[in-house]
Amino acid sequence: MEKNANSNLGDIKNSEFLYKVISERINMEFQAQDAKDNKASLLLMFSSTLFSIIFSFSKIDIYSIIGLISLYISIIFAYLAYRIKLWRRDPDPMNLWYNYYDKDYKTTLEQVTTNIVESYKEVKEQDRKAFYINVGYVFLLIGLGILIFGKLVSAKII
After folding, report:
1. Which domain holds residue 68?
2. Are the C-beta atoms of 91 and 63 separated by less than 8 Å?
3. Per-residue pLDDT tens for 117-128?
4. DSSP string, 1-42
């Protein structure tokens, strides 16, 4: 009987450890999402400001048109990265209370941990922010390069 009790205690300690590791990992993922949102917002702000300044003050030539199109594409990708998405965050307090208040500790802990893992899988599957941000920065740099090249050509430096 004592061996079974120690085995159960080991299972609970293992479940607590797994819960701790998994919940810390999901918290890191949400912090990473916040950092991506900040980068997307900076890209959106910078590209939009640059687009409006160049559109207002630049003489229209082929380089300006191509550069502005590239900046506009950068704005679109920044928006795609920055748009609001609803992420699943577990455990749902009401569901937890109504369905698990009378369950034993180990069962509740395992279910909460399972829900967090499923939530994490959904977040990872839906996350394309990093891709959109990277593509947005590429188009920003291409647009800036074309605009600078066009200015150098029009000034007959190249």
Report:
1. 2-154
2. no
3. 887 777 665 678
4. -HHHHHHHHHHHHHHHHHHHHHHHHHHHHHHHHHHHHHHHHH
Tokens of 155: 């000034």
C-alpha 134/C-alpha 81 separation (Å) is: 10
Helices (H), 58-92: 62-82
**Quick one: tokens of 74?**
């950068």
What token pair was written down for 70? 């590239």
Single out the residue of 87, 132, 85, 91 nearest to residue 108, CA to CA: 91
Residue 2's alpha-carbon distances to 5, 37, 106, 145, in angstroms, are: 5, 53, 18, 73
The three-point CA angle 148-46-30 to 5° equals 135
- 145/158 Cα distance (integer angstroms): 14
Count of the separate structural domains present in the chain: 1
Are 45 and 134 a contacting pair, CB within 8 Å? no
pLDDT exceeds cutoff 90 at 93: no
CA dist 68 and 83 (Å) reads: 22
Q: What percent of the chain has pLDDT over 90?
A: 18
What is the pTM (predicted TM-score) of this model?
Answer: 0.68
The larger pLDDT score, comparing residue 51 to residue 119, is at 51
